Write a sequence for this structure.
């Protein structure tokens, strides 16, 4: 069966529990791209069960429910699957003060992890 035409969920997380696929979280209302993260089968199942974005943290090597320590949760509104069923798009409603673990000059989390742009060879903070 062709994944591109199937209405059946055929995500391939493989047999290795550490196998990860990329997932983009996008603001459901504004369509701003908030974060690029990774997910394994356990994190995907927890996302479906809880209704909140749950990822696999490569730096901590563990399941990470976004917001569990910061309070900045991402409520799932819709999950989209790409044509080859090897990446995901989470349309979310942010709950909290921001999304990124990095903070601005006022100590608040940035609304998106993509808070900088490359301009003339250096990174410049953009207002989101």
């Amino acid at each position: 069966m062709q994944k591109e035409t199937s209405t059946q969920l055929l995500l391939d997380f493989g047999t290795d529990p550490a196998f990860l696929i990329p997932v983009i979280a996008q603001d459901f209302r504004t369509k701003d791209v908030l974060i690029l993260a990774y997910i394994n089968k356990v994190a995907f199942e927890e996302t479906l069960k809880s209704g909140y974005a749950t990822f696999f943290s490569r730096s901590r090597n563990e399941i990470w429910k976004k917001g569990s320590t910061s309070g900045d949760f991402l409520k799932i509104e819709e999950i989209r699957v790409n044509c080859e069923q090897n990446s995901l798009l989470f349309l979310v409603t942010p709950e909290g003060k921001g999304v990124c673990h990095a903070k601005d000059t006022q100590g608040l989390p940035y609304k998106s992890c993509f808070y900088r742009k490359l301009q003339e060879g250096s990174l410049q903070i953009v207002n989101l």
